Amino acid sequence: MEIYNVTRTGETTFVTAATLKEALLPDKVLIIIVDDLKTIFLWKGTECGVRKKFIGARVSQAVRGERGLLYKVDPIDQNDEPQAFVDLFDAKPAESPTAGASMDMAEGGIVEESLAGPAAVTLSNEMKEKLMGEALPGGFEREGIVIGRDYYGVIKSTSVVLGKTVESEDIQKTEELPDGQLFNSNYRIRLMVENGNIAAVEILKKKEIEVPEEIKAEVKVEEKVVSEEIRAEDILDEIPAQKEEFENNPDE
Q1: pTM, full prediction
Q2: Burial 79-117 (b: 16+ CB within 10 A, else e)
Q3: What CA–CA distances, in Å, run from 52 to 130, 198, 205?
Q4: Residues sharing a CB contact under 8 Å with residue 19, sequence separation 6 or more, in sequence order
Q5: Which contiguous run of DSSP H or E holds residue 223?
Q6: What does the domain layout of the chain look like in residue ranges?
Q7: Which helix (H) or strand (E) holds 124?
Q8: Which of 10, 28, 168, 174 is 20 to 30 Å from 213 at the Cα level?
Q9: What is 2-115's CATH superfamily?
Q10: Residues 6, 29: contact at Cβ < 8 Å?
Q11: Cβ distance 110 to 15 under 8 Å?
């Protein structure tokens, strides 16, 4: 079990306490990671502000992104903890974080360690070649790749070599991403898992079906024939009405 305190600036500090219950102070927002349960508890004290709670929610999702999709985030309010969480009150948290940290003393006898955060994960040339060499499912094309916290877009380019058109693809990091939740039913994801960890997430897009020009021409001819047939049926439907009108008004 690891406990992190969320600050107003969005940073996290590692918390060391004798028991989980000792760390649950009313002015704190805590991220509590329980690997055995594959759960990230977002615990919010009764005296913490709305801003701090909002920051905690954002940080908890970022932690989930680092730990993996198998983890879930469970928000909890002080004095309204579920029994599964209460059962952990007497548990002894980890004494040190997974990354190196500098030590500072905090009030109440609790030691907090400022985390530098996990090492940045980047797309190596080896991983790039491995991903680009993987065959894609039928009907899909690769649009992007997620490595760690970064998104890499697939850039397609076309060049002419001795009169022949050559297409190539490269992967480049996207520096700016739109905020908010992004969803599109035309996309699928594919996970690359190595040694039990998610190494990369591929964003695959459904290909647009290209209709050959000859088929387009045939469709246009069919549409024209159908249109003429419908018009002919309309004319035939109008004849009885015109005949009846003529018989009723022969002098007009």
Answers
A1: 0.42
A2: eebeeebeebeeeebeeebeeebeeeeeeeebebbebee
A3: 41, 30, 37
A4: 89, 90, 91, 92, 93
A5: helix 213-248
A6: 2-115, 125-206, 211-252
A7: none
A8: 168
A9: Severin (3.40.20.10)
A10: yes
A11: yes
- Residue-wise pLDDT tens for the chain (252 aa)? 899 998 887 788 888 889 998 999 999 999 999 888 889 999 999 988 888 888 888 888 888 887 777 788 899 999 999 998 999 899 888 877 764 333 333 333 444 444 444 444 566 777 777 877 788 888 888 888 888 888 888 887 777 777 788 777 777 888 777 777 777 788 888 888 888 888 888 888 887 766 566 665 766 766 666 666 666 666 666 666 655 665 666 555
* Structure tokens, 219: 């469709």
Distance (Å, whole) CA 4 – CA 14 = 4
Question: How far apart are alpha carbons 76 and 48 in whole angstroms?
Answer: 13
